[in-house]
Amino acid sequence: MGVIQRQGLKYTVLNFIGLAIGTVSTLSVYSRAEVVETYGLVQYLLSLCVLSFPLLSLSAHAVGVRFFPHFQHLPRGREVFLGLVVLMPIVGWLVWSLLAALWWPWLQGRMGLSDTLMWLAFPLTLFYSLSLTLTYYASNRQRIVVPSLLFEVALKLALPLLMIALWQGWLSQQAVLTLLVGHFAAVSLALFFYLRRLGERLTWPRWSEWPASLRNSMLSYGAFGIASGLALLLATKADTFWVGSLTDMRRTGVYAIALNIAVAMDIPLKGLLTVSIPIMSQHLAEDNQPALRALYRSVSVHLLAAGLFLFGCIAVAADDLYRIMPNSTEVSEGKQVLFLLCTAKLIETAMSLNGPMVYYSQYYRYSLVSLAVLAASNAAFSLWLIPLLGIAGAALAALLTALAYQAIGAVLVWLKFGLQPFSGRTLQLLSLAAAAIALAWGIPDVGHPLVNIAVRAGVFSIVFGGLMLWLGVSPEMTDTARAFAQRIGLLKLRRGKPARGAKGR
What are residue 344's phi and psi, to 5 degrees? Predict the structure, then answer.
């Protein structure tokens, strides 16, 4: 757990900085009446990038993680493998762009976007696919901090600046979207040079040099990755797309603001999973069951603890967060959405290792049918609930789909590996979080939203975190806290020592 803890901790700290930037942007920029509609349009286009990624990349991200261990011992293995991983999204984008051009009138009618906006979507999807593929590939070297800084945090900085420029009248909507494309192009280039600095080199692959069994496995897994990746995203990440398609861009902006707050719960999930999955893939390839079991149990507890911590902080602060937004009357419609999305993300966080364990194992085909069913279910829930309940219907559809997906994943892991994420520590964590939330909610309103947020979230954090460490619910977290406290004490002790030669002066 040394590498996982170090990179996971750095990733978490970095993304909490990104969260702070995103929170300030959401509260002071995105909720303004002048930018809500354009912000909704940006989020709609980004949701298209997310949903099209498995198709456009030809599942390069999954192939890049799954088969990286197999290329370690081949001549020029890593060089040609990186070449393949970079080539896949380029080829996939060319194929699907050609098909999109043939169906252009139908696509434009379905999406309701102008010719200019539709054309901007083409380069945006290419550079998004390249940058995300390279971000996944960097995790093979157990490096997630710099890629996260480039791919995620940089966008949190760029997007509010673009929205401020729009709000002030310095940029038009089209200029904002053009600069967004330029942002992802720059990220792709920066990630490529970062990998070169890590010692990775790129050579165009020669398919015939690889063993036939390896080529067949990669083709089979790549095809599976396209189907399952698309199904997974349609099942779990299509809510913004459905809101934009079934309502309007202003409501999409309100929904995206709630989602912006809820994604804070993804920070520990992304950090631990990004580092854990390559190690888990190695254990699966080596059939190292003891190491796999230890990794699964440890990561599951850490994810639940982190998820409950963030869920509690958001829950006790939600009312006041919406009170301080500039356009609070309009955007407060998303408050119910926020609670539903946070509940869905808590379920995903608590059981999130199940899906990758099946996906990167020899049983990966089992997940395809369940994902297809869930994708269809999510579409059905959205088409039914959004016209009925509006944006709250989209959040409810996301919650129902997340619950079904994680339940199916847990059953598969139990049947195939004999593992499940729950234990006595699960009940302890849930009880501690419920008690801490109840205590924080009971604190009277002092009259100022910022003070309320600081006091209530602070009380929840101290009570939940303190009880969790005191009871030793997570031994690894307790050991880390104890080591940190000892280190601080050691530093104080050193500062208190007299300098050499000072004695007797």
Answer: -60, -40
